[in-house]
Amino acid sequence: MFNLANVPRTENVFELDKVSFKYNSTLILRNISLKIPQGRITGILGPNGSGKTTLLKILSGINKPSQGSVFLYNRLLETYSRKDLAKQIAFLEQNNSVSSPFTVREVVEMGRYPWLKPLSSLKARDKEIVNYALQCFDLTAKQDQTIGTMSGGEKQLVSLARAMAQEPQILILDEPTTYLDIGHQSMVMEYLYKWHKEWKTTIIMVIHDLNMLSQYCDHLIVLDNGVFVKDGVREEVLCKELITKTYKANFSVIKHPDSGVPQFLPYFNGRS
Amino acid sequence: MKTIKEQYYTMNKKICLFPIMVIILLISTLITISIGSVPIPLGTTVKILIDQLPVVDIDRTWNSIQEDIILSLRLPRVFLAMIVGAMLGTAGIAFQGVLRNPLADPYILGVSSGAAVGAAGAILFINPSSFLANAAIPLFAFLGAILSLLMVFGIAWQRKRDTVSLILAGVVVQSFLGAVLSFTITISGTKLRTIVFWMMGSLAATNWREVLFLIPYLVFGFLLIYAFYRNLNILSLGEQAAQHLGMNVEGIRVILLVAASLLSAAAVSVVGIIGFVGLIVPHIIRLLVGPDHKVLIPASCLAGAIFLLWSDTIARTVIPSMEIPIGVITALAGAPFFGYLLKKKV
């Protein structure tokens, strides 16, 4: 364990004020105002096409809002340089599966890029962080393997280790478990949870699996058709009425036998 | 999982690579200077060269004709071959890295067709007996190359400025300029042979002025591209991942593409179009040293120099009393080899 680079600590990492986003004259996000709390796992849910990915891209500074403003630590997002943002935020896009010819270690070292001056090589602290990230995702033994030879689940772990080497205060993930089998899904989520616990990293993610979302996220945001619907803690948001209305399908809601969090079973009309 | 022995081997391979390549380059230089229509013994060549060094004085065991052949015919030509090869090798690795396309070569952004149109125009419209003619062909070729580069960027700029737009714009500009070139050739009449010969590339009738003209381009282009080696490595993760790591992908892409295109344009303007060097040399080097651009860029530069040096030596010696265009040699050697690489699926 080593100390993270110092950053401002505020109650909310992000604040969005009346943010709209247009792509080719189609309005994808409409007038969204919300806050994302520091040090928690925030899950964003909503049906396909509700603007979840676009919202993540706005938070990461890749997309600029057409209207409204985004604040990161109470400072306008657009006033940060791209490199400064990369020191605060690590963002893994959906299917970021790399087919890089580099080895696991080399890819994780690339996570240090925002902290390095051009042409300078990795210093002792950089190497320490890379080693720590490899160790956290149990990749130390595989560090000399080429990424191309790895399975989808392993590649996702390498991407996460690279994100960790970036030393971010905020981790943004778009569907980190798609294309993974259920075993790997739960493995990836457990690693993320461990990371979150250890470093108090703010995690913001989109996951389609409501049950996974319910297990790991303690703050939730619901979007529907580009409009902000509701946010709040797990029990406020993950109720039968709201989920049924948002996804236009029926669910049975039960309590998880171990953790007691709400779990959703798609409605089954009793064919026998 | 690599064994410790394998790791040691890879490490060793990278450390030894540069001294070995430099030694190969030096030996190749001496051998290729000795080979030619007038063969000069290797020992004599070495003596003549050493004699040029200040302070050193060697007993003359050679005649002045031999000295003249070496110093004013072969030496500048050998240097030009090495410099042009180094330029094309460096440009090739930069293009393949930035565009993340294994088929990218130094001419992908229309540099070659622009240069060809410029040179054809100069050959066609400038009186060959005027003293301007020799200087005009490279100048017009260079301007043509720069112009086509501007056209490609001009088209791609309106779109998303991504790799696909650039390659598509390159294709569009190339086919347009190809048509212009065909038209120029059609109306060229007796000058047809000169134009075609220029297009096939040649290092004949080289002088030191051309060598000196190219050196700043090589040094500047190489250093600029090398300064971005880490960015090229990170680009292999994909443009979006590079952006999320805080890299200014668009800006760096433009810098590298312009640097690599200038390298190729300068080389083409002096020696004509020499294909396949910038395409296959980076591939071979990648097979040898792996994906790290910190090693790839200098290795590709040296390998390009060695490859073109030998190609030119073959071009001027394989048929006595006649020169084969060097583009023919590089394509004859390069195309089958590239096919072999594709078949092996690297």
Protein topology:
The complex is a heterodimer of chains A (272) and B (346).
Chain A: E1 12-23, E2 26-37, E3 41-45, H1 52-59, E4 67-72, E5 75-76, H2 82-88, E6 89-92, H3 104-110, H4 124-136, H5 152-165, E7 170-174, H6 182-199, E8 202-206, H7 210-216, E9 219-224, E10 227-233, H8 234-237, H9 240-247, E11 251-255, E12 262-266
Parallel strand pairs in A: 3-8, 3-9, 6-7, 7-8
Antiparallel strand pairs in A: 1-2, 1-4, 4-5, 9-10, 11-12
Helix pairs in contact in A: 3-5, 4-5, 5-6
Chain B: H1 4-34, H2 42-52, H3 64-99, H4 111-125, H5 133-158, H6 163-186, H7 192-200, H8 208-227, H9 229-235, H10 239-244, H11 249-271, H12 277-289, H13 293-317, H14 326-344
Question: In words, what does this structure look like?
Answer:
The complex is a heterodimer of chains A (272) and B (346). Chain A has helices at residues 52-59, 82-88, 104-110, 124-136, 152-165, 182-199, 210-216, 234-237, 240-247; strands spanning 12-23, 26-37, 41-45, 67-72, 75-76, 89-92, 170-174, 202-206, 219-224, 227-233, 251-255, 262-266. With 272 residues, chain A is α/β, with parallel strands linked by helices. Chain A has a single domain (12-266), classed as 3-Layer(aba) Sandwich (Rossmann fold). In chain A, helix 3 packs parallel to helix 5 (152-165) and helix 4 (124-136) runs antiparallel to helix 5 (152-165). The model of chain A has no long low-confidence stretch (mean pLDDT 90). Chain B has one domain (4-344): Orthogonal Bundle (ABC transporter involved in vitamin B12 uptake, BtuC). Chain B contains 14 helices and no strands. In chain B, helix 4 (111-125) packs antiparallel against helix 5 and helix 5 runs antiparallel to helix 6 (163-186). The two termini of chain B are 20 Å apart. At the A-B interface, helix 2, strand 6 and helix 3 of A face helix 9 and helix 10 of B.
Count of β-strands of chain A: 12
N-end to C-end Cα span of chain B: 20 Å
Level-2 CATH architecture of chain B: Orthogonal Bundle
Q: Topology as H/E string of chain B? A: HHHHHHHHHHHHHH
What is the helical fraction of chain A, as a range of percent?
25-40%
Q: List the total number of helices of chain B.
A: 14
The domain tally of chain A reads 1
Radius of gyration of chain A: 19 Å
Amount of helix of chain B = over 70%
Mean pLDDT over all positions of chain B: 86
Largest pleated sheet of chain A:
6 strands, mixed
